[in-house]
Write a structure and sequence with these properties.
Oligomer: single chain
Radius of gyration: 28 Å
Shape: globular
Helix content: over 70%
Order of helices and strands: HHHHHHHHHHHHHHH
Largest sheet: none
Number of helices: 15
Distance between the termini: 65 Å
Structural class: mainly alpha
Strand content: under 5%
Length: about 325
C-alpha cells in the first residue's frame, strides 16, 4: 500500500514537472511561451537582415582594393582594408563644404517647419476660427497636388527675385509650412494637441494667459514628442531630397550631398564612356553613399528611443 502511494506521488510529481516544462516552452497563453518568443525573434532577425544586408554590402565593397574586387572568392571580408575609395569620394564630393551645406539646409528647414507647423496645428486643434473645416480641407488638398506642378512658377519667381543658386527658395517655403511635408506635420501637431486635456487651457485663462502665452508656455512644453518627430522627419526628408536642390542649386560648384552623389555617378559614366569601365567604380559609388548616410545614421542612433516614444504618443501608429 505504501509502495502504491509512493508511485502515485512520483507520477504526480513527474506530471507536474512535465506541465511546467510544457508551460515554459509553449506557455499558458499563445504569446508567452518559449516557442512563440523564438518565432518572433526569428522574424525580427530575418527582417533586420533584409534591411541591414545592403548597408553591410556597401561597407564591405567600399573598403576593397582592385584585387579584392576582381576576385570572386572575396565576398564579404576583404583581404586588406583599403581606404583609397573613401578618400577619392571625399575629394570628389568636396565633402566638408557639401556636408556644411547639407547640414545648414536641413537644420534650417527642420527648425522652421517645426515651429510654423506647430502654430498651425495648434490653431486647427484648439482655436475657434472661421471656416476652419474649409481651411483644413484645403490643407488636405496639398497631398493631391504634386510638387512638380508648382515647381515651374516657383523657379520663375526665384529667378525674378535673384534667388536662384541659393538655398532661400528652399528655406522660405518651410517658414510657412508649405507643401506636402508641411501638411503632414500640421496633421501630426493637430493630432497631438487634440488629445491634450482642455482643463490646462482653462486654468491658464483663469490666470490671465492669452492665446500665445498658452501656446508657448503650456502646450509647447507638452509637445516635445511631436516636436522631436516633426524635426527628425523634416531633417531626414530635406537631407535626402534631390529634387528641389537639383531645381534651384544645379549651377553652383559645391552642392549638397544629395546632388554630389548624382554628380559623381555622372562623372563615372562619362569616364566609362570615354575610357571604359573601371574596377573601382562600384566601390566609389558605395563610398559616396556611405558618406551620405552616415550623419542621419548617427542622428538616429542617439535619438532612437525618444523618436519611437514620440511616434507612439503622436498617434502615427494608429
Amino acid at each position: 500500500m505504501f509502495r502504491i502511494k509512493l508511485k502515485e506521488e512520483q507520477t504526480a510529481n513527474m506530471l507536474h514537472l512535465l506541465s511546467k516544462v510544457r508551460y515554459a516552452i509553449i506557455g499558458r497563453e499563445a504569446d508567452k511561451g518559449l516557442l512563440f518568443k523564438l518565432f518572433i525573434y526569428l522574424i525580427l532577425l530575418d527582417t533586420a537582415y533584409i534591411y541591414l544586408k545592403p548597408i553591410l554590402h556597401m561597407m564591405a565593397t567600399m573598403v576593397k582594393n582592385a584585387d579584392d574586387l576582381l576576385d570572386p572568392a572575396v565576398n564579404w571580408f576583404p583581404r586588406t582594408i583599403y581606404l583609397g575609395n573613401l578618400q577619392e569620394a571625399w575629394s570628389w564630393m568636396k565633402y566638408p563644404k557639401a556636408l556644411g551645406i547639407s547640414l545648414g539646409l536641413s537644420l534650417s528647414v527642420a527648425i522652421l517647419q517645426t515651429l510654423s507647423c506647430a502654430v498651425t496645428g495648434y490653431a486647427f486643434a484648439r482655436l475657434k476660427i472661421p471656416f476652419k473645416r474649409v481651411l483644413f480641407f484645403f490643407l488636405m488638398l496639398t497631398f493631391i497636388v504634386p510638387m512638380q506642378v508648382t515647381i515651374l512658377p516657383n523657379i520663375i519667381y526665384a529667378r525674378q527675385l535673384g534667388l536662384l543658386n541659393t538655398i532661400y527658395p528652399i528655406i522660405v517655403p518651410a517658414f510657412f509650412g508649405l507643401g506636402l511635408k508641411g501638411a503632414l506635420f500640421v496633421i501630426i501637431y493637430r493630432q497631438f494637441f487634440s488629445t491634450q486635456p482642455k482643463e490646462l487651457e482653462e486654468a491658464a485663462r483663469i490666470d490671465g494667459a492669452g492665446v500665445f502665452k498658452i501656446f508657448y508656455k503650456v502646450m509647447m512644453p507638452l509637445a516635445k514628442p511631436a516636436i522631436l518627430v516633426v524635426f527628425l522627419f523634416s531633417f531626414i526628408w530635406t537631407w535626402n531630397d534631390f529634387y528641389l536642390p537639383s531645381m534651384y542649386l544645379s549651377d553652383i560648384e559645391t552642392a549638397p550631398l544629395s546632388l554630389g552623389i548624382e554628380k559623381i555617378a555622372s562623372a563615372l559614366r562619362q569616364q566609362a564612356e570615354a575610357y571604359g569601365p573601371s574596377v573601382t567604380d562600384e566601390a566609389i559609388r558605395m563610398s559616396t553613399t556611405f558618406l551620405m548616410i552616415i550623419p542621419p545614421l548617427l542622428l538616429y542612433t542617439f535619438t532612437q528611443r525618444w523618436f519611437v516614444e514620440g511616434v507612439e504618443r503622436t498617434g502615427l501608429v494608429e
